[in-house]
Amino acid sequence: MGDEEIGGVLKIRHGKDQKQVQSSNGLYPILGTGGLMGYANNYLYNKPSVLIGRKGTIDKPQYMETPFWTVDTLFYSEISENYSARFIFYLFQQIEWKSFNEASGVPSLNAKTIENIEVSFPSFGEQNRIAKVIYDFEKEIKLADSKLQKFKLQKQGMMQALLTGKIRLV
């Protein structure tokens, strides 16, 4: 494939106000630049998508494979066939988004600015292979983090038992 403008690969779409769709027992996440904001009974988009902040947190892309709703401060992307959404997510993590900031106060991005960025895309097959390798690393990191948290809890419990005399070492 090669160097292409992002806009030739995906379309940046605007999120919408969530007030009419928000529900305490909703099925679909409502997402903003800071993450989960609530749930809705309707979704705005139901295909794999890369989300990027329009206002506020513009440098922390998010990835969704399941249906979702985004608020107006968070863009979502409609990705063309033969492009891997997960690969684009990882690619977006490598872009220095703050260098494209268009505001002096709250950081802001424009859809056209995003679409005009030129990046390199390998073939669809290679995109999928790259995304799988990175995803597998992420899974291993999460597993290691989970084990670390478990060990920290065990250590804390053992310290409490030893230091209070509930357990004696002989």
UniProtKB/TrEMBL annotation:
Keyword NADP: no
Xref: Pfam families: Methylase_S
One BP annotation, GO: DNA restriction-modification system
Organism from which the protein derives: Nitritalea halalkaliphila LW7
Similarity field: Belongs to the type-I restriction system S methylase family.
Domain Type I restriction modification DNA specificity, first and last residues per copy: 5-149
Keywords: DNA-binding, Restriction system
PANTHER family assigned: TYPE I RESTRICTION ENZYME MJAVIII SPECIFICITY SUBUNIT (PTHR30408:SF12), TYPE-1 RESTRICTION ENZYME ECOKI SPECIFICITY PROTEIN (PTHR30408)
Coiled-coil ranges per UniProt: none
Full protein name: Restriction modification system DNA specificity subunit
GO molecular function terms listed in the Swiss-Prot or TrEMBL record: DNA binding
